Amino acid sequence: MRLSSFPLPDEAYLPGLTPRVDPPMPELPQDLNFEQDWSTLERYRFGIDCLNSDLGWECHEALEAIWHRVGRRTTRSGLALQTLILMGCARVKVLSGKEHSGLVQRALERISSLEGRVLYGLNWNDVKREINCLKNQASHRIQLNFLD
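^ that's the sequence the OP posted. Answer follows.
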């Protein structure tokens, strides 16, 4: 089930394997308050859609702009966004036939303070399970369920 009404790219960008096309992204509001507005933030929802659709690079691009604005590793939301970005990057590596364990390990480190919580529409125990599946089964396709 899609979370965003914004159109997904037709093809995933895999560095060195597919041509890069920078897809249009939903705009971010000037007065972004992620903690308050995450549930209606089209770009965040688009990023989750990309992650669930094997568009890891595009997920990274969508969420990175938010991540930079929320405080990166200095905030809980920054850690959450970085975890999702790392998952997307790991999936790009998997689909490109490259080593991904370092990215998975970094995602597991970032998620430690989020475990056991339901934040930003996600159950972070479920996110951790998805990361571990990605770690143990390279063919595993990420599927995060969004809880409105």
